[in-house]
Each structure stands twice: as structure tokens, then as C-alpha cells.
Structure prediction request, 454 residues.
Amino acid sequence: MTTERFKDHLDRLDTGLPDHPDTAEYMREGRAARRRRHSIIGLGAGALVAAVITPVLVWGGSTSTVNPTGEVASDPSSSASSEPTPTPTPTPTPEPAPVGPVDRSFGDGMTAAVTEVVPRAELLDETVGDHFEDAKDGNFHFRNPTLSSPPDWANVFIWAQEYAADGLQYLYVRAEWDTIAAEQMSGCDDGMYEVMKDCSVVESDGYTVVVHDGARFPGEPVGNWGRSVTVTGPPSADGSSQYVKASAQVKDMSWEEASAALPSVADLTALAQDERLRLPEPTEMPTP
Amino acid sequence: MATPDDAAFDEFVSSAWRPLRQAAYALTGNTADAEDLLQTVLVRTYARWPKVGREDPVAYVRRALVNAYVDTWRRRKVLRFDAVEELPVVESYDDADRVEDRADLADRLARLSPRERTMVVMRHYFDHSEQEVADAMHCSVGTVKSTCSRALKRLRIPVTTAEGLS
Prediction:
């Protein structure tokens, strides 16, 4: 009785929305989403071919294991696992880096991109910086990215978001311009991790895609496993490079469990290549 | 050019539109946000239609609607704490109240917390079981019962004991 009465009341609400849906609009936008996903998967597939033929640097001497479609995504609606395996296609040329100042909507776009890959991701924290500020914790000094008030949008050089999501210890995305990214972010980082199951590096039209898989930082518990994808762009005129990192970590798992629970390499790669995570180059890079 | 997939999607959305539209409005409390929510969910549904259309599109789209809404309010909760105005709990009802209640329902829904709106729509509009709502909202069945009961009272919808709400 309660349910029927609630339905009756709710069905009579004047919502102000049309009586008939504009399905053409949904299909148009949906097709665009499909194209974006296929082009990203296509890039992954092209990267797989490139990695096998011309591995730039391969962790532990093995060949690349970037697998754009074969991984089991943690969410049933995850994109890569719901589509048929695409035929490898030529790698598309990335668009030029976006120009012009960002605004608050960049964070919304970043969040939208993340929640398309991990629909239940919950935003926990956000870091936006247009300059550095000194900070001290005990005997340690830091220079933290900080946003001015009012923000100097033309000089925003970092935008990062951290999420909670079911089954994950964290999910982290970071878009940044850095003067040392091209040098330090475009290869397997054998000094950063204590354990790493695999790493691959693929170059494509000036962009470098690095996958660190099954990685654990020194001192972390044995059951912690991370998976990250970093995409670094070519140096700009002043030597800075744009990079985007998408990473996730689980805890208290075997590697087999973790590998299935983490967002797939294909999903993280798609996220790191999503145009909504491409931060425009700041007018002036801050001094670190 | 329309494909068989497009025709099936069009047919599905047309048939499911009314309850989706009402639910989206009940969840968001306003036309603009309801429109955005529907856009997000139906675009996502079309993008995955080759798979979704073969399975259970009604279940998928309802789950997607709730998930997208929960994602939104959880994110906003982190960034901004909105005060939710308390409404008086009404313990008894009569037929004379119903017409007025119906007219006021939108306002009363809008002043529930997002969590209360989500639970009551899932339980009493989408007919999910209490266990399904509890699983989706990561809480106990008891919490679902008490939250829905409280929300329905604030909406001036009588709560019947036959449904186990004491």
C-alpha cells in the first residue's frame, strides 16, 4: 500500500521534462562516446603492436604485456570488457595540447572521465596549483602546489584528484606540466618500486605511455599492489612537458586477486589519454 | 542511418521514459538536474547498448540512474556541506490531505536528504528489495527500513506495518 501510494503521488508530479525523450540526442552523444572509447582502445591496440616490434625499455627483459582488451575490469559496466576486441588500427595522431586558461570545470571534466571508467568512484580530495608554497612537517620542508585566491587560472600547472572506490585502496589521477616530466616520467622507474610485476613503455607520435603493473613502494605491506599508467607529451617550446597519471592500488590481496580487482590497464590507459585530463600549458611554469 | 540497435534503443527509452523521468526528478528535486542526470545515464546506456540491450536494460538503466545520482551527491558532500532543512514528521493522514500532499510532494522530496531520496525511490518506486537497497547503499537492512520509514513520514505517505515497517 505504501509503495502504491508513493508511486501514485510520484507519477503525478509535474517534472517540467518533456513527455517524449529526445532519443536522437542521446544516440548522437552515445555515438561520440563510443567513438572516443574505440579510438582509445585502438590506440591501446596500436600500442601493443608497437611495443612488440619496438620496445623502448622493458622491465626485466620481458616483452610488453600491455593488453588493451583482455583484462577483467572490476566493474561490470567497465568499458573495455563490454566491447568486442577491436582490430588493431594505426595509432591516431594526438591533438595538439589545449591552450588557454582552465577554470573550475576542468575538475568536473576530470571527475566525469574517472566515473566513466569507475562509476562508483567517490571524490575524496583535489589538489590544484598555480604556484608553490612552503610547508613544514616536523623536520621536513615541502613546497606544496597551491591555488591562489583568486586563482591564477592561466598558470595552473597541476590538477589532481583522489578517489575512493569499492574494492580499491585508492584511485588517483593527476594532470601536470613539469620541466622534468619528459626525462623522469617516460621510462620504467626501477628505483621507485620495491616490487614490480611488469612494466612497459610505448612511444607514439611524441607521446610516451608507461605502464607500471603490480608495483609496490618500498616499505609497503606485502598485500599492496598498484597499477599505474602515465602518458607524457612532447616537450613544449620552453621545455616543459605535460603528463597525466592514472593509478590505483589495492591492499591485502594476492597479485592474482589484485590484478582482477584493479581497473584494467586498458581502462587506466584510456583514462590517462582522455582529452578531459589534458591540462593546458601554463603561461609561466612556477619554480619548484 | 538508423540501425536495428538504434531502433531497439529508441523503443526501450520511449517505453521506459516516464518512470525514469519521474525518478530522476524525485532524486534531484529540480528539472535541470533531472535532465542532466537522464542525459548522463541514457548516453551511457546507448554507448553500451550492444551489451546492455541483450541483457536487462531496465535493471541496468535504473541502477545507472541511482549510481550516477549517488556519485553526484557524494561528490558534492565532499566539496560542500549543504544544510538539509528538517521537516515535521506527520504521524497520521486522511483522504483530505492527499490532494494537498500530492501538490506538495515535490517540495517535500526536495527537502529530504539525498540519501533518503535515493533509498525511498529505489525501495518504493523501483521496487527493489530492502536487501538490494542495503547492498547498493552499503548499509544494513535495518537502516534501509528506518530511513525509508522516516522519509515516507516526512513525505506524508502512510507507512503500513504489512511491509514490515514498525
